[in-house]
Structure formats: C-alpha cells, structure tokens
Design a protein that fits this description.
Blueprint (H helix, E strand, L loop, with lengths): L1 E6 L11 H8 L13 H5 L2 H4 L2 H13 L4 E5 L5 H8 L4 E6 L15 E4 L13 E6 L7 H13 L4 E5 L6 H16 L5 E7 L1 H8 L3 E8 L2 E8 L2
Parallel strand pairs: 2-3, 2-5, 3-4, 5-6
Antiparallel strand pairs: 1-7, 6-9, 8-9
Helix pairs in contact: 4-5
C-alpha cells in the first residue's frame, strides 16, 4: 500500500525531485530540515544531528556486528545520521548524493569520501564488507527503481542494507498528510509533492527475492535491516 507524501517549503517548489530544487533547499539556511552548513561548528549544532546520536550508534553497532567495516550512504542529504555513525565508530563512511550541494559536506573534513552519484545511472564501489545506507530517500524512488536498486546491490554482493524510511505508511502518517493539506489551505500555501509513503508489507515485497527485511524501532525512528537471500 502507498499514499502520496507532501511537505511545505518556503518557495513552494511543485515537486522536490530535481537537482535544482534540492540544491535550492540545501543552501538555504531558512530551511532548517534540509540546509547543509559549510562549517563544522554550525553543522554539529543542527537539531537533526543532535537528535540522531542514538540512531547513529545503533547503526554503527549493527554494521560492526555484521562483520562489515564500511558504510556507503546513497542519497545522503544533510548526512546527519552518517555523521553520528562516523564519530561514534571506526567505520569507513562514504556519503553520496545526486546534487552538487553534496560537496558542501567535503568542507567538514569528517567523511572518508564525499561523492556526487546518481544511483539511477551508476552504482557505488561497494563489496560484501560494505553496508549500504538508504536514509529517507525511499519516497523519491518509484517501486521499479527500488526493485532495480535491490537487484543491482545484490549483484554487487552487498549482503546488508540499512534503511531509515522517510515515512512508513501508518494511520498517523495519513492523518499528518491531512493536517498538511489543511495547513496549506488555511495559509493559502501550495504543498510540495515529495513522493509516496509505503507500507511495511510493500517494502518487504519490493525487496524479495533479493533481501529479507527485519523491522526495528530506534528511538522515534523506524529502521529496516535487509539481509541478502542466498
């Protein structure tokens, strides 16, 4: 099951699915949930960095338990979870995104690699010692793109994928979307389409037969841990 997902932005882009639209919010300090500061002190003070320490620690521990020593993040955005993983572990952490503003993360001198990468056209250099991290990018990908990604990662011998979904479809999410619609109506502000929220069952079906999914709750975050199917 899936349900359309919307957000409210200052400049009201019709959809947050282009290089230009994403870059606009990544460099705009007035969009605190999406802005990437270009210095480490401001970055560490971000609310998103501060509230994901527990999540970063949980992921780092599970990567190490899986016998892996690398984490490769696809569609990293602000990379706040990846930052907490890096500073709380000895893992090699690479981050990537398809927009030029990802290079702002290079200035922080935190991550082992910062790359501009479009997963629809190219794949990362990964292996069976790499856990691929997908943080909140699921709503931006179609079902077909997600299936293709699972298939290609399995072909690269990636045994584990960790995903924090942008929005796991629940009754609460549906009510939140109704609230966003009401807020946009009352403020006469256009909503921005941000893709589709999916149910847990749909995620499991899309990953099969390449990976099986385990669901965890870490703090306020839903976390999926995908293990390869032999």
């Amino acid at each position: 099951m899936r349900f359309p997902h919307y957000s409210l932005f200052l400049k009201e882009p019709p959809a947050i699915n282009t290089v230009e639209n994403w870059d606009a919010v990544r460099i705009n300090a007035d969009e605190p949930d999406y802005y990437i500061p270009d210095n480490l002190n401001d970055y560490k003070a971000l609310d998103s960095v501060l509230r994901t320490c527990e999540l970063g620690s949980w992921i780092a521990n599970n990567v190490e338990k899986a016998g892996c020593n690398q984490l490769f993040s696809i569609g990293c955005g602000v990379a706040y979870v990846e930052y907490n993983i890096k500073v709380q572990s000895k893992l090699e952490v690479a981050v990537s995104d398809f927009v030029p503003s990802v290079n702002r993360l290079q200035h922080l001198n935190v991550f082992d690699r910062v790359l501009r990468l479009d997963i629809n056209n190219e794949m990362p250099e990964v292996n069976n010692k790499t856990v691929v991290y997908l943080g909140r990018i699921d709503t931006e990908l179609s079902d077909e793109q997600l299936v293709s990604l699972f298939k290609r990662l399995r072909a690269l011998d990636v045994k584990y994928i960790c995903m924090v979904p942008a929005q796991l479809l629940t009754i609460r999410v549906v009510l939140t979307e109704c609230y966003i619609w009401l807020k946009s109506f009352l403020k006469n502000k256009r909503r921005t389409y941000c893709g589709e929220s999916r149910s847990l069952g749909l995620f499991k079906r899309l990953a099969h037969p390449y990976y099986e999914l385990e669901y965890f709750k870490v703090g306020a975050s839903s976390v999926f841990w995908f293990s390869s199917i032999a």
